[in-house]
Design brief:
alpha+beta, two-stranded parallel sheet, three-stranded antiparallel beta sheet, 66 residues
């Protein structure tokens, strides 16, 4: 099953260094945006899902409010 990259929500973790990502009941954490995005892709692959097309700029996936 393919999903859109826009379904991945990346946000800055308060009181910590790094970022976190949410997508379809998966949560991943990492120090950089790229690391969080790669970990989310790996978690989705384990569930049998793939991202249809990689975003041109990962920073566009950052959300201020969750």
């Amino acid at each position: 099953m393919k999903i859109a990259a826009q379904k991945i929500r990346i946000f800055k973790i308060k009181n910590r260094k790094g970022y976190a990502a949410l997508c379809l009941n998966h949560l991943t954490e990492g120090r950089t945006l790229f690391q969080v995005y790669e970990r989310m892709l790996k978690a989705l692959r384990r569930s049998g899902m793939t991202v249809a097309r990689a975003p041109a700029d990962i920073r566009r996936l950052i959300k201020k409010k969750i």
